[in-house]
# Entry
Amino acid sequence: MPVESHLFRVGLVQMSCSAEPDENVEKAVDRVREAARGGAQVVCLQELFRSQYFCREENADLFDLAEPVPGPTSSRMAALAKELKVVIIASLFERRASGLYHNTAAVLNADGTLQGLYRKMHIPDDPLYFEKFYFTPGDLGFRTFDSPAGRLGVLVCWDQWYPEGARLTALQGADILFYPTAIGWHPSEKARYGAQQLDAWRTIQRAHAIANGVYVAAVNRVGFEGPAEQGLEFWGSSFVADPFGQLIAEAPVDREEVLVVECDRRRIEEVRRGWPFLRDRRIDAYTPITSRWLG
# Structure
């Protein structure tokens, strides 16, 4: 097998968002083009890239931002994927039916077809992250998608804190886990907790890479959105970690960037041979994990 067949390139688009959805879509199109020029075979956009992060408030009028899939934005990205011959992972506010909405990642093939959807499974409800008001939990389970770059696992933001989701996706043969994300600091908390929050976010995802022997790509937005004391400062820091959790590329905390990162499937084999966590799993002993609490 030629060496090049082991290699694949991923693109991560970290950008700020304006209040105008059309502007954000066109900016995303430009950034995907940039990643493709850099050789990316798969390009992942940040969570809900079409708009600012609207879940900072509970406002029924904001359901108007939702679209069906297929719909205008997914169709725009599908045409772009076909033009550039790249796979695009597009995070969308999906209108499934009247009163039924999901936080959904669409995987668009390099031929422009919609390969499939992943609907966010874990839905947060925290100050300025009022997602349970908007999103129904996903009902498609944890999924992988084959691509010219290998088998892709796709999860979304709050999913990144759950080792179960990473494990179940990796067990389906994923070479890399993508996490489109929108996470940042509350203004009142940054000085005291900001450094440790960012470190925890980075650490938990590096741990998924280590525990499963896969690449992990986290794609966050950047910039401040909302009023001064009731907004969020998104912390960027999009990154790719290798199968032993080493950061091989990271975007800055405070500005837009397009990362194009080369990954090597041989690294998966190398790490798993030396650290055979999948071999030593006690699958006969894990049934209790489906319980809510064992105390």
